Structures are given as C-alpha cells and as structure tokens.
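Hi support team,

I submitted a single chain yesterday and got back a structure, but I'm not sure I'm reading the token output correctly. Could someone confirm the output below corresponds to the sequence I sent? I've pasted both exactly as they appear in my results page.

Thanks,
R.
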Amino acid sequence: MLSLLLLALAAVLAPYILRTENELRIHVVQQGLSLPDGFYVYQRLDERGIRIKSITPEGDGLVIRLDSPEQQLLAREALENILPPGYTIALNESPLPGRWVRKFARAPLNLG
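Hi R., thanks for writing in. Yes, this is the structure output for that exact sequence:
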C-alpha cells in the first residue's frame, strides 16, 4: 500500500522535479499598455541570435521558452532594452520542489 502511494506521489511530482524549462514571463504593469506582439518579440530576439523554443500568451502575460539558461539571461537583458517602460520581465521561478528534493535526498529513508 505504501509503495503504491509513493509511486502515485512520484508520478504527480515528476513534472515539477524534472522541469528544465528556461522561461521568461512578460507582464504589463503600466495601465494603458498591452502585451507586446509575440512575433515582434520573436523577431527582436532572433536578430540578437537568441534561440527561442516558443512564445505563447498565458493568463495576463506572455511566456517565452528558450533553449538554455544562458539564452534566458540574454533574452531578459535584450527585452529590457527593447520594450518600453511599463513591463516586467521575470525569469520563471521554478516551484520549491528543487529545494525540498535536495533535502529529502540527503535524509535517510526510514520506511516500516
């Protein structure tokens, strides 16, 4: 029974633990502005040699998925120069699983 519970928990948490997406999120913080056009953002980043996996609207923002952490940082810096004031450009913060997975990995498992 316990092993079944652990297996189910692992299946649910696996996408969070194994997440390797390098994302930026653009949000409007100034009233009256709209989200930048995804194609415009793609063109401007591509001109700078930044490799983009995808750009999609999500909720009230625009999500840019990139190839690597280095590309993510380059894209953030470029977008800060490209976009006018009134936008936030945030690195995607992975949920906490990374921190607690390391904690549990160091602790011995005492089952049964």
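A quick pointer for reading it: Confidence is low (pLDDT under 50) at residues 94-99. Let us know if anything else looks off.

Best,
Support desk
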